[in-house]
Amino acid sequence: MEKREVNIDYFVCRNSFPEGYESLCRAAIEASRKAYCVYSGFAVGAALLLDDGTVITGSNQENAAYPSGMCAERTALFHAGAQHPGRSVKALAIAACRDGIPREEPVAPCGACRQVMAETIKRHRRDFDLILIGNRESLLVKASALLPFTFTLPDTKNA
Ligand code: THU
User: Fold this and answer.
1) Ligand 1: which residue has its CA nearest to atom 1?
2) pLDDT, tens only, 99-121
3) Is 62 a catalytic residue?
4) Which residues touch 128 (CB under 8 Å, ≥6 apart)?
5) Per the count of CB atoms within 10 A, which of 9, 64, 80, 156 is most buried?
């Protein structure tokens, strides 16, 4: 039996946003104000930067039938796929906020959002930066790092 390891490199930015991503982070925070989160009270905003500079924002949209709701990240990613299918993603910033102020701890995307991010990387053959915003510190990590052993179908059309 051979031991192998998966390591995740990430950067911590204290009391600041990662360089070059300040306005993207502010857009994610602002997007959280549009969350429809009447059931959880947990507002999340996401801002996606495309390769042509377009910024797409999303927020979580909940539903009385709970599983029918959608996370902020996938709201933004699916919008990008629907409206800008040819554009690759450069970065995605995520913020969980109270009244437009980031919570203390940076929010990490759920498993379903990680799976959609993995498909986005595969689709455009381009990894992207993920910025997880917290009130005191933000984390910068490659999207690909968050889902090792990703499920993919071989020989998928358009893949
Ligand atoms: N949520 C997101 O929008 N993104 C995350 O990264 C974590 C969770 C939403 C889903 C649900 O509306 C609420 O937060 C509580 O789970």
Assistant:
1) 71
2) 999 999 999 999 999 999 999 99
3) no
4) 88, 89, 90, 91, 92, 117, 120, 121, 142, 143
5) 80
